[in-house]
Write a structure and sequence with these properties.
By secondary structure, the chain is an alpha+beta fold. The chain has 19 helices and 21 strands. The strands form six sheets. The protein has a five-stranded antiparallel sheet with strand order 4-3-7-6-5, with helices on both faces. Strands 9-8-12-11-10 form a five-stranded antiparallel sheet. The N terminus is likely disordered.
Length: about 650
């Protein structure tokens, strides 16, 4: 039996051999067109049926003497049908010899009378014809079987789902390899679809099969989801398929053929693409930036809502038209703007991104400033279009103009403030000078009569007034310095200066004040340190640093050190006072900045600012290091030869 559908149902080993080979079985499974035969078997069969015909002929010969060849025709027919030309001719020859020897006179002799020669010849001729017809019929059957096998092989190995269901229960009669793999090689044949694929329950597949079987009308499904794979862990796939009714002998459906393809990857890829397109559409339609796309001809093919709002044109109005002719054809002065000079249209032929600012024309004819970016679209080495980003900068220009006006007003206010500080400082300094002189004269006058009660009492008052006048003079001096720094009028007068000597002089002047504050000054100046500096400004730096040290380190020691390090001079002032908090370290050198409360410590917060400006002008650096509660150290490093001569201080 050939391995058709019946073989699949009744002879699994034969079918497995057939499917493992992937097509018609090789010759080791076929012999002379018959399954499981060999040439020796075919010839033996011919001898066997010829012998059987002889025996039967011997039994009936006494009753049928006129036809000694009739049963041998049957033997020849069976031999030719079973084995082809060889066995058929063998049976023909054996039959002729047996008939001549046994049945034709003279009997038991191979001699033939002339009348019987014609009978033997006629038998041989008819037997040969019968064998020829059997061979042709055999070849036709073999070809038909081969065709069936090729069709079956095509169905079995087709990269598509092919299955045949029979009867109203849709019993699976045929399932190709693709279908079997898709369903996890579960048991299918001889089982109904409901038994073999219970995971399809509730998906409408059973109902579709019932409808096709009952109505005889085919059904085509597109991207239908279905559960497939391992029954214990099925997955959802998408399929294009056809349920085709199979008509029985009575012309009514007796089965349904399934033919389909899995399109899961295509469906998921399309959905991902659709999701990406939706996201892109959402982004472009909600973007505040105008987006325009041109094709290779510089014609508009896309505009988002922001671009329509900016230009005043809609996509329908510009689609398929030269964009330049509508939004950029004229300059603000009314002259024509050639496309060849347009940087946006230049991006495509040069394949280079263009950025800049320009003036475009709205639909109503008004001009508006824009910032643009034109990026070429290059696909497979060819420039196919341009993407343009537009931003209306009208508001930006207005804001910039307002900022410039505000900045101008602010600069003017600062100028007026600095001018006021300069004038006020000078005006305040004018009465302070004679007041200081009068207090000095009064102190000398009191010194001539030191022992009277009135002199003692007035001397204390005069000393207090002198301290307050000095403090006021220092504040005015700081304000005046700030004014000079801001206006660039503070000049440095460079000369050779001994930093150690300057330090001694300033420390000597601060000795009485340090004594009153309970501070002890320790100087470490082992040798002269000479550099090209401004002596008065160095004294001012030392004055500010010592004033701070005495103010915030009252009652503690103050160490002043001057060192020489090659071409550098280093000045260090260290106190043991309250120190500086870490959060204040970054701002103590700014104007009007203070690291402590003004309730407990006076001053305007200008001393360190002026100090830093002077040190910067001398090409040096100043830094502070401190641990709260353990004092602070200010270190000044100065090159002995400033990089710039006659430096002007400017803040």
């Amino acid at each position: 039996m050939r391995p058709g559908l019946w073989c699949r149902l009744t002879c699994p080993p034969c079918y497995e051999a057939w499917t493992s080979y992937g097509g018609p079985l090789p010759l080791k499974y076929r012999r002379n067109g018959k399954w499981g035969e060999s040439p020796l078997t075919a010839y033996g069969f011919a001898v066997l049926v010829t012998t059987a015909a002889l025996l039967v002929q011997l039994l009936i010969y006494p009753y049928v003497r006129a036809t000694p060849f009739i049963l041998f025709f049957g033997a020849v027919m069976l031999s030719g049908w079973k084995g082809g030309w060889g066995p058929g001719l063998l049976s023909t020859g054996l039959s002729a010899l047996i008939a001549d020897y046994i049945f034709l006179p003279p009997r038991n002799s191979l001699s033939v009378s002339p009348p019987d020669i014609l009978a033997v010849a006629l038998f041989v001729g008819i037997s040969t014809l019968i064998t020829r017809l059997n061979v042709r019929e055999r070849a036709a059957r073999a070809e038909a079987e081969a065709q069936r096998e090729r069709v079956l092989a095509l169905f079995m190995n087709a990269p598509a789902i092919i299955a045949i269901h029979r009867g109203p229960e849709h019993v699976i009669e045929f399932s190709n390899l693709f279908h079997a793999r898709l369903l996890g090689h579960r048991e299918l044949l001889g089982r109904s679809v409901r038994q073999a694929q219970p995971e399809l329950e509730g998906q409408g597949i059973y109902e579709l099969l019932d409808r096709v079987y009952q109505t005889g009308e085919p059904y085509t499904g597109k991207e239908v989801p279905a559960q497939v794979g391992d029954p214990a862990n099925p997955r959802t796939g998408y399929f294009d398929f056809v349920f085709q009714p199979q008509l029985g002998p009575n012309g009514k459906p007796d089965g349904v053929m399934l033919f389909g393809f899995e399109v899961t990857e295509q469906v998921l890829a399309r959905r991902n693409l659709e999701n990406a397109e939706r996201r892109l559409t959402a982004i472009t339609h909600n973007a505040t930036l105008g987006l325009v796309m041109m094709d290779a001809r510089q014609h508009c093919v896309f505009m988002n809502p922001a671009a329509e709002k900016i230009t005043g044109f809609t996509l329908d109005e510009l689609q398929g038209k030269p964009l330049h002719d509508f939004i950029h054809h004229t300059r603000p002065d009314g002259t024509h703007y050639p496309m060849s000079e347009c940087p946006i249209d230049r991006a495509l032929p040069t394949r280079a991104q263009e950025q800049g600012e320009d003036v475009f024309i709205r639909k109503d004819g008004s001009f508006y400033p824009v910032a643009f970016t034109a990026s070429p679209i290059v696909e497979d080495g060819k420039a196919t279009g341009t993407v343009i980003e537009l931003r209306d900068t009208t508001w930006d220009k207005r804001q910039q103009a307002e900022r410039e006006q505000l900045l101008a007003k602010l600069q003017e206010a600062v100028r007026l403030r600095d001018e006021f500080l300069s004038v006020a400082s000078h005006e305040l300094n004018t009465p302070l000078t004679p007041l200081k002189l009068r207090l000095q004269s009064l102190a000398r006058l009191l010194a001539t009569e030191p022992n009277t009660p009135l002199t003692t009492r007035i001397t204390k008052e005069v000393e207090l007034m002198r301290q307050q006048v000095k403090r006021l003079a220092d504040l005015v001096s700081d304000l005046l310095d700030v004014s000079r720094i801001r206006t660039g009028r503070m000049k440095l007068r460079l000369e050779e200066v001994d930093l150690s000597e300057v330090t001694h002089d300033v420390a000597a002047r601060f000795h009485p004040e340090a004594t009153r504050a309970g501070c002890t000054l320790y100087l470490h100046t082992p040798e002269p340190v000479i550099g090209l500096w401004d002596r008065l400004r160095l004294e001012q730096v030392l004055t500010n640093l010592l004033s701070n040290a005495i103010k915030y380190g009252a009652g503690k020691s103050i160490h002043i050190r001057v060192e020489e390090d090659g071409n550098q001079a280093r000045l260090e002032v260290r106190d043991e006072g309250i120190g500086i908090k870490p959060e204040a370290m970054g701002r103590i050198f700014n104007r009007f900045e203070r690291a402590v409360s003004e309730r407990h410590y006076g001053g305007l917060g200008l001393g360190l600012y002026v100090t830093r400006q002077i040190i910067d002008a001398l090409s040096g650096t100043v830094r502070a290091e401190s641990t709260p509660g353990q004092g602070a150290t200010f270190t000044v490093e100065l090159p002995r030869q400033p990089r710039k001569q006659d430096e002007t201080l400017a803040g």
